[in-house]
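Give me structure tokens for this 214-residue protein.
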Amino acid sequence: MTERASTVLVLDDDVSIRNTLRVLLRSVGLNAEFFDSPFEFMQEVPRLDAPSCLVLDVRLPGKSGLDLQRELTEKGIPLPIIFLTAHGDIPMAVRAMKAGAVEFLTKPFRDQDLLDAIQVALERDRDRRERQAKVAILLGRLQSLTPREREVLPLVVSGMLNKQVAAEIGTTEATIKVHRSQLMKKMGAKSVPELVRMADKMGIDGVGIKGSNW
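Here you go.
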């Protein structure tokens, strides 16, 4: 499938800034959507289905950009953010960057500085989406395992030998060899190290999926 075009979201209540950024982003062929309030912006977020980033003013009516950053984090929306401000200070910038912001630019900013930050942010979101897609494929394969194969999987990735796994779950070594072969095949792993890497991506350790009794 062809990836949908990346989108730059701009949230700034200053119409002159929005117009300036509209011209700038259009000049380099970037898709962009513009918002003048956090409420309007939050209506759009659930529909994002392509690599995106947010160019965000720090000072907004009713809710600051930093508050919106925290809200997005709390809602589990890892949207890369580039802050713009005419009234920034070092503590504000540090707070934003510690919370994961890509950049913190002071108005007036250099066009190239903003464009560079946008490219970094879009690449970060693209990488995140690719990782999520790969994990989704692995989780789909995980669902194809039998209950016994799911029991064997974390023991195998923990480094146990077949005879150790057999002793752990109370069966024969020959049976474990069959389960191990089947789960490797279903997971698409050509070696145990590859299976270990898959398990790590899914959050599986030696006792199962972290945070789940699966």
